């Protein structure tokens, strides 16, 4: 195995130097309560972080996450201490439920996300757009996978693909069936060594089935593994970062199951290409496309050149975004105010001495 097999590609090379004297470089494959498994081409290490790293971390985001490249040193046998988390070229995160609106990292250094929707009742263009927005704000390339094509006719599949292309540009769509393996050849051709992948989508769309099929895990074996882990055995078999047999790395963490919007508002604009192109012709540069005169977006909406649902989804995402960023901004402002207050109190004290 080489570092490339573990996903060390050009994007990583740009940020990460491997010249670390006396230290090892590896990739985090499991994170659980500040305990980690690190994989190198030769070995897997159980690791903790240095006290320095813990205390200098300003938030959870500064601690290692699955997908991170880290430097570490080894003391007896397989025990290791993580010294440094290397810079990330992409970060998949979600708005955590914690009170500060702090983002929670789901995985890092992911190149491509397979956004999965089933062609039966799960199919929903707004939700697709939402996932694409998440990917773009995370610097991850989205690819759409339509699953369960065995449940409907080819004509309907074609119609769904057309409806996607009408709303969403520059994203490839792969129709597959996990039952009949239809579409797998085309999909596998896009998977290349050195890249890291993840699968996003609602519950029940077939994410585990896809992962198992890509990993060539026989169905029976999946059950055997989950049985042994539920008995509380030490779970070295449990990995959240796996190497695909034909090359490429797949990350599957529990956090991927539920995602919200947590990104910059630009990413939404980038997703809604059509709207941003129209917006260039709005009279006002800061047009919100809601009530302004000479708004090119509203005009397109009226003339039918812009889909009503695209327009509504755009505003919905913007609102969520605004809500999210205001909580973070408010917190920052509060911290700043507190900081000033502490400083003033200290100054007053010093004066009195
Ligand atoms: N007919 C059909 N059924 C499928 C296909 N893919 C998955 N299923 C079935 O759909 C159900 C859910 O599949 P999973 O792979 O567990 O879906 P998931 O997205 O991992 O679901 P969560 O674990 O809840 O997130 C299972 O009963 C699968 O057998 C498919 O392509 N065609
Ligand atoms: Zn406008």
From TrEMBL:
- A GO MF term: GTP binding
InterPro entries the record matches = G_CP_dom, NA-bd_OB-fold, P-loop_NTPase, Ribosome_biogen_GTPase_RsgA, RsgA_GTPase_dom
Q: Where is the EngC GTPase domain?
A: 108-257
The record's listing under NCBIfam families reads: ribosome small subunit-dependent GTPase A (TIGR00157)
> How, per the record, is the cofactor bound?
Binds 1 zinc ion per subunit.
Q: Which amino acids does the record list as binding Zn(2+)?
A: 282, 287, 289, 295
What do we know about how this protein assembles, alone or with others?
A: Monomer. Associates with 30S ribosomal subunit, binds 16S rRNA.
Function, please? Answer: One of several proteins that assist in the late maturation steps of the functional core of the 30S ribosomal subunit. Helps release RbfA from mature subunits. May play a role in the assembly of ribosomal proteins into the subunit. Circularly permuted GTPase that catalyzes slow GTP hydrolysis, GTPase activity is stimulated by the 30S ribosomal subunit.
Instruction: Write down the superkingdom of origin.
Output: Bacteria
Q: Which residues form the signal peptide?
A: none
Q: What class of enzyme is it?
A: hydrolase
GO terms under biological process: ribosomal small subunit biogenesis
- Quote the SUPFAM superfamilies the UniProt record gives: Nucleic acid-binding proteins, P-loop containing nucleoside triphosphate hydrolases
Q: What is this protein called?
A: Small ribosomal subunit biogenesis GTPase RsgA
Instruction: Indicate where this protein resides in the cell.
Output: Cytoplasm
Similarity comment text for this entry: Belongs to the TRAFAC class YlqF/YawG GTPase family. RsgA subfamily.
Q: Which cofactor does it need?
A: Zn(2+)
Keywords of the record, alphabetical order, are: Cytoplasm, GTP-binding, Hydrolase, Metal-binding, Nucleotide-binding, Ribosome biogenesis, RNA-binding, rRNA-binding, Zinc
Indicate which residues the UniProt annotation says bind GTP.
Answer: 147-150, 201-209
Q: Where is the CP-type G domain?
A: 100-259
List the record's Gene Ontology CC terms alphabetically. Answer: cytoplasm
């Amino acid at each position: 195995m080489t570092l490339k097999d573990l996903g060390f590609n050009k994007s990583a090379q740009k940020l990460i130097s491997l010249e670390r004297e006396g230290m090892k470089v590896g990739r985090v494959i499991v994170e659980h309560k500040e305990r980690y498994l690190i994989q190198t081409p030769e070995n897997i290490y159980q690791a903790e972080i240095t006290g320095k790293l813990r205390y200098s971390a300003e938030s959870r985001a500064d601690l290692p996450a699955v997908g991170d490249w880290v430097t570490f040193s080894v003391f007896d046998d397989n025990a290791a201490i993580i010294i440094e988390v290397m810079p990330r070229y992409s970060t998949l995160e979600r708005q955590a439920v914690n009170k500060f609106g702090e983002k929670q990292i789901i995985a890092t250094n992911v190149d491509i996300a397979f956004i999965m929707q089933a062609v039966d009742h799960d199919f929903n263009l707004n939700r697709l757009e939402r996932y694409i927005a998440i990917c773009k704000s995370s610097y991850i390339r989205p690819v759409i996978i339509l699953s369960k094509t065995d449940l409907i006719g080819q004509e309907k599949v074609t119609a769904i693909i057309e409806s996607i292309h009408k709303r969403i540009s520059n994203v490839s769509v792969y129709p597959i069936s996990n039952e009949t393996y239809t579409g797998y050849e085309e999909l596998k051709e896009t998977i290349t060594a050195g890249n890291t992948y993840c699968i996003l989508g609602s519950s029940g769309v077939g994410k585990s089935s896809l992962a198992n099929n890509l990993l060539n895990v026989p169905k029976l074996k999946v059950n055997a593994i989950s049985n042994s882990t539920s008995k509380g055995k030490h779970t070295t078999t449990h990995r959240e970062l796996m190497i695909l047999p034909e090359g490429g790395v797949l990350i599957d963490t529990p956090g991927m199951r539920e995602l919200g919007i947590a990104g910059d508002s630009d990413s939404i604009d980038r997703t809604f290409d059509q709207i941003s192109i129209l917006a260039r012709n709005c009279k006002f540069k800061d047009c919100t496309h809601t009530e302004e005169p000479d708004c090119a977006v509203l005009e397109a909406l009226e003339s039918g050149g812009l889909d009503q649902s695209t327009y509504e989804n755009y505003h919905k995402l913007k609102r969520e975004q605004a809500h999210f960023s205001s909580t973070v901004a408010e917190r920052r402002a509060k911290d700043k105010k507190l900081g000033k207050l502490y400083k003033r109190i200290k100054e007053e004290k010093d004066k009195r001495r």
